[in-house]
Design a protein that fits this description.
By secondary structure, the chain is α+β, with helices and mostly antiparallel strands. Helices cover 36% and strands 25% of the residues.
């Protein structure tokens, strides 16, 4: 076989031939003075002759090449040549044999369909970083070569394999490092999210979190449920812009801060105002969105505020979906904005959904289209909160390889009737008049607690707490004043509101003091107590008593 003819197809041969042509023509140009004479003399005086590529023995050249070279010809790919490097890697291969039987390593690499394609098309093909049976990785280039005439019958394929093991191992190490970093971020993210959601008396809540696919770094999506006391519940969802451990760490700091601010029982917009300043202190370049909502079963609505977050959706008992669009301020960390609170109805039988943009945002669609699709899915989603969560995630097409994190928080305000409805009762009394208001409040509380069939000890404690809270309001508050009693399946709640916004605090009364013991008594006998300012001005002071198990059935 004429290897010189085959070598004309080797990569770089034509460029070297062109270079020889220029060198051949260069002596004539030297005579024209383009090169100094001294330089020309040095080039010609006893200079060793350098053989041209055509004068070299191709077999000798290919045998010295460190890359693997094999030459096959004909439609059945019979072996015409393998170089020394190939023999060293895979052993001696008999010439003239069919490659499918004599070169099993190529079959294991899946190269024979590629050889057929190259032979038919006459165009070179390359496959990158295939791991061979010898444990090393190679990039294979298959180049068509022709000998004589006869179409594909006289056409062969030159297989040229470059060892890229070092590059492949480096790439695998990089992928392994990225996987470890992602696993660390996912672990951190999940550890910072609530391990178990609080379940308020009046709401049923479920949440789900789906990290982005393996090719996407974990983001800063988060949610939380915080029991505020007095039957009220705070619901939070947020999204820290960015990826990886840093975003997860910032998310953890914001979630911790939200829980601390929630204990102050502030209105939603004031909580976001505090978070805005904290976000700027944590990282001036880190921006986060957040929606903070409070549910009060006595009001039948969600009071909320949003810092650049997506609107809350509420489905009523008839299947109509409402979108809470306003008010919405800029994301946390931007500063210079006064957040405000809004409200959306949440009557018994309603379902509300808080979510992050990974659920509705797609690269090929407008964000409003994603929210509208979620509204349609929510309109037909029934069942428990967890079932609704799962249905919304499926309807949005979220898969394990989704390109963004997804967090969804679903809450339902059940419509209770029958025996279950008897466990959730309310009673209220307007406190009018002067000193006679206190005995009237005690009598009202005694009658209500008796009708609710509480045991004697709980009845007496409830009446005592009512007396102390009403006396405190009469002494330090201003009209209008109101007493509210509420029972759930788990607790008794007593609340007194008035028009003065000065919040009481528990303090140690000296033996000679005539006042200052009321709140201390309430704090001692009750399971929990607290106070907050009301939106229209004034305050509410409340306490709770845990019901015995026999009272919750």
């Amino acid at each position: 076989m004429n290897f010189t003819r085959w070598s004309a197809r080797l990569p770089g041969t034509q460029r070297r031939a062109a270079a020889r042509t220029e060198q051949t023509a260069s002596p004539d140009r030297r005579g024209e003075g383009s090169v100094p004479a001294a330089r020309a003399e040095r080039l010609t005086d006893d200079a060793p002759s350098v053989p041209a590529v055509d004068e070299l023995r191709v077999r000798e050249v290919l045998d010295r090449v460190p890359s693997l070279v094999a030459l096959v010809h004909g439609p059945d790919h019979r072996i015409a040549y393998v170089n020394d490097a190939y023999t060293t890697a895979f052993g001696v291969r008999p010439l003239g044999e069919r490659a499918r039987e004599a070169l099993p390593e190529l079959d294991g690499l899946g190269l024979f369909p590629l050889l057929d394609q190259v032979q038919r098309s006459g165009k070179p093909r390359t496959v990158k970083s295939r791991k061979a049976p010898d444990g090393r990785s190679y990039t294979f280039t298959c180049t068509p070569v022709a000998q004589g005439e006869g179409g594909s019958e006289g056409r062969g394929v030159l297989v040229f394999a470059t060892d890229v093991t070092d590059h492949a191992e480096a790439a695998e190490r990089l992928r392994a490092s990225e996987r470890r970093q992602r696993e660390t971020a996912v672990t951190l993210q999940r550890s910072l999210l609530p391990q178990e959601l609080e379940q308020p008396d009046d709401l049923r809540i479920a949440a789900t979190y789906h990290p982005g696919g393996t090719e996407a770094a974990v983001g800063g999506d988060w949610y939380d449920v915080i029991t505020l006391g007095g039957g009220r519940t705070a619901l939070v969802i947020g999204d820290v812009m960015g990826r990886g451990v840093r975003a997860a760490a910032v998310m953890g700091q914001l979630r911790t801060a939200v829980r601390a601010y929630a204990r102050l029982d502030l209105p939603p917009h004031e909580v976001l105002q505090l978070l805005d300043g904290l976000a700027a202190e944590i990282d001036a370049n880190q921006i986060a969105t957040c929606a903070y909502a409070i549910h009060d079963p006595n009001e039948g609505k969600l009071i909320y505020s949003s810092a650049g977050h997506l609107p809350i959706l509420v489905r009523d008992e008839n299947g109509t979906v409402l979108r809470a669009d306003e008010p919405t301020g800029p994301p946390l960390g931007t500063g210079g904005w006064m957040h405000t609170s809004g409200s959306i109805p949440l009557a018994p039988g309603s379902t509300a959904v808080l979510y992050t943009d990974g659920l509705v945002e797609r690269r090929d669609a407008d964000l409003d289209e994603g929210i509208a699709a979620l509204e349609r899915a929510l309109a037909g989603a029934t069942g428990t909160p967890q079932v609704v969560c799962d249905r919304l995630v499926r309807s949005a097409g979220v898969t394990p390889d989704h390109d963004d994190d997804v967090a969804v928080l679903v809450l339902q305000h059940p419509a209770r009737a029958g025996a279950e409805g008897e466990l959730f009762r309310n009673a209220a009394l307007e406190l009018l008049g002067g000193v006679e208001a206190a005995p009237r409040a005690r009598a009202f509380a005694s009658g209500v607690l008796t009708s609710w069939r509480f045991p004697a000890d709980l009845h007496d404690l409830g009446v005592l707490a009512t007396s102390e809270l009403v006396a405190n309001s009469l002494q330090h508050g201003t009209p209008p004043m109101r007493l509210r009693l509420r029972r759930t399946d788990r607790r008794l709640i007593i609340e007194v509101t008035d028009g003065d916004d000065h919040l009481p605090r528990r303090r140690r009364a000296e033996p000679g003091d005539e006042s200052g013991r009321g709140i201390a008594i309430v704090a001692t006998i009750a399971s929990n107590w607290g106070c907050r300012r009301t939106p229209g001005g004034g305050k509410a002071v409340w306490c709770e008593f845990a019901l015995p198990r026999t009272q919750t059935t």
